[in-house]
Amino acid sequence: MAVLVTGGAGYIGSHTCLELLNAGYEIVVVDNLANSSLESLRRVKELTGKDFTFYETDLLDREAMEIIFEQNEIDAVIHLAGFKAVGESVRLPLRYYHNNITGTLVLCQLMQEYAVKKIVFSSSATVYGMSDSVPISEDSPLSATNAYGRTKLMIEEIMTDLYASDREWSIALLRYFNPIGAHSSGQLGEDPSGKPNNLMPYITQVAVGELTELHIYGSDYPTLDGTGVRDYIHVVDLARGHLKALEKVLLSTGVEAYNLGTGRGYSVMEMVISFEKVTGQHISYRLTDRRPGDIGICYSDPSKAARELGWVAQKGIEEMCEDAWRWQVNNPQGYNKEKPLLRAGIS
Question: By CB count within 10 A, which of 68, 72, 195, 254 is most buried?
């Protein structure tokens, strides 16, 4: 059997491909490389010693996508492809709606035509919006607050309608919290384009000297130290969650949502202190005002995934920091060795 992985060259996608190959799955990868690197897939092949088929294709290109289904016997899909920057989605909503939703519609139409009715969808905890209670369970109210989150929520609704129309479908909606860290080899990790949007690559780039200081948005939240609290999950744990969800959709029908998080919240300052402790690196930071729309505390209730998928996050915050730092030290310029550093004197 072959599993089609969309967005397989990205941060979460590359780690998921590696775990799939190590578990014995045959994979086919499609990625338009708009926000990812072919180097990540080369390293996946190197780390696993296994080969797979790759297509540099955009999900919006229906003819090219159909060729993939014609040339391969696809049994299931793990759908990670999509634009993912919250701030950019606020500035460019139409771009996000067109890419994320239309691309998914093309994919699902082809899956239906080729009788491939098993899919694991990369959703997001952003579908919960400004949740006012924690921990957040799958039954919490859904209310996205930005275009990115709304594309995820709309796709969840589309897939729910799809199952209602055809009970042969099997769909897992994975609501990620905050993935960080990297593969323990130091060969796979998060490689953001430009200034990072997420906390951990921002911290590591300050530590390696590419950025001057970390900006911490908000120091007056009702938390232990006043900084925002989030549920950080190791990307390898997250990747393994996809395998557990895949096992379920291969053996059943229905549509279910699952939180993938640790169930434990850490503040931004706790993250900085943990990183400094593990790595011995000093992180310069500046406290600034809250960003509009940010909430103080957000962490998951992952008990449904434990109960129904047999999945529990295994890696703690120190391992997340250690692996993220190893990736940054080994790859100070990310996958692109030609990318100029923001600060001179680092090799």
Answer: 68
User: What are 329's two structure tokens?
Assistant: 């030290």
Note if 148 is an active site residue. yes
Mean pLDDT, residues 35-52 taken together: 97
Could you report the per-residue pLDDT of 112-164, keeping only the tens digit for each?
Answer: 999 999 999 999 999 999 888 999 999 999 999 999 999 999 999 999 999 99
CB atoms within 10 A of CB 255: 20
pLDDT per position as a tens digit, 301-311:
999 999 999 99
User: 208: Cβ–Cβ under 8 A, 6 or more apart, which residues?
Assistant: 328, 329, 332, 346
pTM over 0.90: yes
- Let me know: does 3 contact 27? Beta carbons within 8 Å: yes
Residue 125 CB neighbour total at 10 angstroms: 23
Around Cβ 336, how many Cβ atoms within 10 Å?
A: 12
Q: In terms of DSSP H, where are the helices of 141-293?
A: 147-165, 199-208, 235-251, 268-279
Q: Given the residues 25, 148, 221, 335, select the one marked as catalytic.
A: 148
* CA 154 from centroid of its chain's CA atoms: 18
**195 pLDDT band (50/70/90 cuts)?**
confident
The CATH code for residues 2-180+232-260 is 3.40.50.720
Q: Give the pLDDT confidence of 60-80 residue by residue, as tens digits.
A: 999 999 999 999 999 999 999
CATH code at 199-230+263-330: 3.90.25.10
Distance CA 132, CA 160 (A): 25
Domain boundaries, the chain: 2-180+232-260, 199-230+263-330
In degrees and rounded to multiples of 5, residue 214 shows phi and psi of -90, 130
Question: Whats the size of the chain, residue-wise?
Answer: 347
Alpha carbon of 35 to those of 22, 59, 194: distances in Å? 25, 14, 11
The reply to whether 199-230+263-330 shares the fold of 2-180+232-260 is no
